[in-house]
Amino acid sequence: MSDLFMHPPPNSRHALISVMMLGLFTSACTSLPEVRYLNTSLTAPDYPTVTNAQGTLSISKNKTLLNKRWNHAYADMATLAALEEAATGRPLISGNKVSLLFDGPQTMAAMMAAITTAQHHIHLETYIFDQDAIGIAFADLLIARQAAGVQVNIIYDSIGTIGTPQAFFDRMRDAGIKLVAFNPVNPLQTTGQWEPNHRDHRKILIVDGVVAFTGGVNISASYANSSLFRSKNKRQKQIGWRDTHIKIEGPAVAALQWAFLATWDTHTPTASTALTDTDFFPPLKEAGKQLVRVLASEPGGSDEIYKAYVLAIQQAGKTIHITSAYFVPDAQILLALIEARQRGVDVRIILPSVTDSGLVFQAGQSFYDEMLANGIRIYELQIAVLHAKTAVIDGVWSTVGSTNIDTRSFLHNNEINIVVFDTEFAQTMEATFDEDLRYSVEMTKEKWATRPLSKKFKEWAARRFEYWL
Asked: Cα-atom radius of gyration of the chain, to the nearest Å?
């Protein structure tokens, strides 16, 4: 086994996963569900279900709340919310405060501040946890909280952390932190069926059951510096990754807690790491006015995040603005975007021009011809590596999470996304999209047609592997 396999640099993780999975599973393909007619085939409730800190709202209170929230929306948000509930089985949760966090420094500062205040428990679920300046600082803080009597429990993905020495995790375990390695690469270390293609791509931090964080940010030095997003220092030498995370306060935190515990229970190898504490769900008061839906998907599940994305695109009446780090759409997502554009929706997508995964990048670009020919506008973010996974539709429906628009996220990974139905939050999302546009270059049909033949060949070749990327 080569040193690259044992200790790959961060930008080789995607290629490593693709090679491993292709070799192991070319004969075991599953597929995404048929959703082309999802918006017309569902039997939706007359009004979406809404829960809050006290339970499920009555129909009359429900209507009053939603009519007040969506009175000036572009589209019929109640219809979309009801269809989304029918597709995902998840209710809306009211009374939340959702705060956008931009890039690594802001996100790390907010998460570490929350960890510092922890009194009872800290739950961390992450794809990448590197042994570098950021990772060590994060681990030191978690060890300090564990020493102060706060129970720290961590789920880390075995492939996402394949370049991280085991001693890094052993140090935390020796300090009393409980850790679970998600789907070990070594089949001898797994207690159930060996499924190396099933990865935990979620990024979740929950502190004391009252505040939660999720989005695209991993624990890595890639986030030590900011991108140029809203930066006053346009000449900074070190450019960090461009990413988006969110902080959640309110009743929705409990839904993220359930998602974490479900993964922990499924992948706990020994009784010694079982979590039996009954105080993971403290009473949660309303912290704001935002309505959210927490969607946690996994292989073999109900494809919640995929269906929510397709429905929102199918129902869009005015705008679809997507920011996607890894964009390799399946045929149904692509069709939904093209049909939205054909009915007059402004469809704009920000994609990377700098990437940590060349194969995924080239596979995504293989869709440019068809998208540009159908009027979808494509922008490529310059200078910084784009890692955000967000969308805002019709000025009301927004989503932030760990999910890329590709088959790997929708079909092979554990992922988590937060859908927010709120006009003010959507305005902030739109402002964020506009800010990223400032540092992006639009790709036109004319410009794209001039690319060299060698690039076209790479796109064609990468497209052959899109199922595994």
From this structure: 21
Domains 3-11+98-273 and 14-96+291-468 agree in fold: yes
End-to-end Cα distance, the chain: 22
**Confidence band of 64 (pLDDT split at 50, 70, 90):** confident
Each residue's pLDDT tens digit, 5-31: 333 444 455 555 554 555 444 435 678
Query: Residue ranges per domain, the chain?
Result: 3-11+98-273, 14-96+291-468
Active site residue 265: no
pTM for the model: 0.91
Q: Domain 3-11+98-273's class?
A: alpha beta
* Residue 456 among the catalytic residues: no
Min mean pLDDT across 36-40, 104-108, 288-292 is at 36-40
Helix axes 453-463, 358-365, angle to 10 degrees: 100
Active site residue 394: yes
Among residues 123, 198, 201, 458, the one annotated as catalytic is 201
Mean pLDDT for the chain?
A: 89
Superfamily of domain 14-96+291-468: Endonuclease Chain A (3.30.870.10)
Give the largest Cα separation in the chain, rounded: 64
> d(Cα 141, Cα 143) in Å, to the nearest integer?
5
Catalytic residue among 208, 330, 356, 422: 208
